[in-house]
């Protein structure tokens, strides 16, 4: 291999995707500040509710159009490359780029020509979503090919490039959204519907630029493979893996179902929440829009920063574990890797969750409005619990699939859906806006327990040493939460958090205190050593 294209280690790939994911999520959250201001306080609830509903529908079509193939491509390419079958990887890439582009074309056609029926089924008949859905349909022409290319690059262990493409995509998307919204709402004095329409078109622009960047990276990747690296078809064993669309779909569908769960639950929330509040509680459309926007869009945008952390770990785990399994590495090595993954995941996600909970009121003031912060901050805290257990559930589900527990993985998904369906009505009636979030949290919590128990039965991950390490991380996080909460209470006595600038200053001060406290404690008790332990772990 050319030294100029050195593969990423597990730590480097996780850090790259973490940084790019966080940056992408921060961009997707930060744009809300000017976007909400330009939309105006009178229309912001309706605009956020509309935008949230449209993007939930779009995400469903997006996942269907990619069909879990990017994760499957990453897994298969890593497995082939670990054995020197680079020509097989190339066949996979070309064949499934063609197939999935056709799927994207079909999905785009359904979204454009069937937008009215999509609105009836997936948006409780809200016809306001019809035009934005048509605008988003254009992005479906690019997204499937982009997903295939990302999976291909990740399978070669050049995950940092795939991660950077996400940053390019978000920068382009947010830039166009803000430009279009400012032009329409401020310069032209237009209405929020037109601004939402143009904001949805930004997805196509961002995806196109990211795709062009990855095409250039693919050329560099192919040039880094020497003739000596490649084992041709005649060198393959007779029982080598068959390259067929059906076999790839069998590998991809489980990833599809895991990736889909949050989107499906959000679609379930936006339809059932509307029905419950209309038919049983007899609430007004404005009340429904304001409450749904609060938990279905505004809080959801903020917790996606946490979810991006889990995605970074998951995207690194898939090729690493797949390569280990394909090379029949000893269970003791896989056991060690999994223990590090568990510790690393908790080390990163737990303090981020606690930190967001501690400054939830200021976050709401900065990204939404101060007059909603009393209720909004509570919604955000409950959403943080949901996000934490969703992250755990998603990572564990992906590990189950890579370690050949696909049937159990699918069973746990079905049970999670059933728990959500059963709890949705009673919890929404009892808890109001917190009900849908609580139902999802319970579903993820229960299934995370079963998934982890199954993985532990196979690899015996849990031991006294891991328990001590996780307990230290938990105590560090709790201390950080207490210190930051006290700091937040004291700082607002001096600096008012009723304005966006004041709230931002409070966030910065408390954030620095939180990082310092958690960093110091994790250094003193040795928890920080997890970064060193996985630093030299290679993907293959």
From TrEMBL:
Keywords: Cell membrane, Membrane, Transmembrane, Transmembrane helix. It is a multi-pass membrane protein. Its main location: membrane. One of its GO terms (cellular component) is plasma membrane. It is found in: Cell membrane. It holds the Pfam family Polysacc_synt. InterPro entries: PG_synth_SpoVB, Poly_Biosynth_Transport, Polysacc_synth. The keyword Cell membrane applies. The chain crosses the membrane at residues 15-37, 57-75, 96-115, 135-159, 171-188, 200-217, 251-268, 302-325, 337-359, 379-397, 409-427, 433-452, 473-495, 501-521. This is Export protein.
């Amino acid at each position: 291999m050319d030294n100029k294209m050195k593969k990423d280690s597990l730590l480097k790939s996780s850090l790259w995707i973490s940084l790019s994911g966080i940056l992408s999520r921060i961009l997707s959250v930060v744009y809300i500040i000017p976007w909400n201001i330009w939309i105006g306080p009178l229309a912001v609830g309706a605009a956020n509710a509309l935008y949230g509903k449209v993007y939930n529908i779009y995400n469903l079509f997006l996942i269907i159009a990619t069909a879990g193939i990017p994760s499957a491509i990453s897994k298969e390419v890593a497995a082939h490359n670990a054995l020197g079958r680079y020509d097989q990887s190339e066949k996979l890439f070309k064949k499934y780029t063609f197939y999935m582009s056709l799927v994207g074309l079909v999905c785009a056609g359904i979204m454009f020509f069937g937008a009215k029926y999509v609105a009836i089924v997936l948006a409780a008949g809200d016809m306001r979503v019809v035009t934005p859905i048509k605008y988003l349909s254009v992005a479906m022409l690019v997204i499937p090919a982009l997903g295939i290319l990302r999976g291909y690059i990740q399978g070669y262990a050049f995950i940092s490039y795939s991660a950077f493409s996400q940053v390019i995509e978000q920068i382009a998307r947010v830039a166009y959204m803000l430009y279009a919204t400012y032009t329409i709402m401020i310069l032209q004095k237009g209405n929020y519907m037109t601004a939402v329409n143009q904001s949805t078109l930004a997805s196509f622009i961002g995806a196109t630029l990211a795709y062009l960047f990855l095409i250039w990276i693919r050329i560099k990747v192919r040039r880094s493979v020497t003739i000596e690296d490649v084992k041709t078809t005649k060198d393959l064993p007779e029982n080598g893996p068959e390259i067929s669309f059906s076999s790839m779909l069998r590998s991809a569908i489980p990833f599809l179902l895991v990736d889909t769960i949050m989107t499906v639950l959000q679609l379930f929330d936006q339809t059932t929440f509307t029905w419950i509040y209309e038919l049983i509680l007899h609430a007004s459309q404005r009340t429904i829009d304001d409450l749904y926007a609060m938990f279905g869009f505004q809080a959801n945008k903020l917790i996606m920063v946490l979810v991006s952390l889990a995605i970074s770990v998951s995207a690194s785990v898939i090729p690493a574990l797949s390569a280990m399994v394909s090379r029949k590495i000893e269970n003791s090595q896989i056991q060690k890797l999994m223990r590090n993954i568990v510790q690393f995941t908790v080390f990163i996600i737990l303090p981020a969750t606690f930190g967001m909970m501690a400054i939830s009121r200021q976050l709401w003031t900065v990204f939404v409005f101060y007059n909603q912060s009393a209720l909004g901050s509570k919604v955000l805290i409950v959403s943080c619990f949901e996000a934490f257990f969703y992250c755990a559930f998603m990572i564990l589900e992906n590990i189950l699939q890579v370690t050949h527990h696909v049937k159990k993985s699918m069973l746990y998904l079905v049970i999670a859906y059933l728990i959500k369906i059963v709890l949705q009505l009673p919890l929404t009636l009892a808890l109001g806006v917190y009900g849908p979030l609580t139902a999802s949290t319970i579903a993820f919590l229960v299934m995370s327990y079963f998934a982890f128990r199954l993985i532990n039965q196979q690899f015996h991950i849990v031991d006294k040493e891991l328990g001590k390490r996780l307990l230290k991380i938990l105590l560090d996080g709790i201390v950080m939460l207490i210190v930051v909460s006290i700091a937040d209470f004291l700082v607002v006595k001096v600096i008012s958090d009723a304005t966006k600038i004041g709230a931002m200053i409070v966030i910065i001060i408390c954030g620095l205190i939180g990082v310092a406290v958690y960093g110091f404690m994790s250094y003193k008790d040795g928890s920080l050593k997890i970064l060193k332990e996985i630093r030299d772990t290679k993907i293959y």
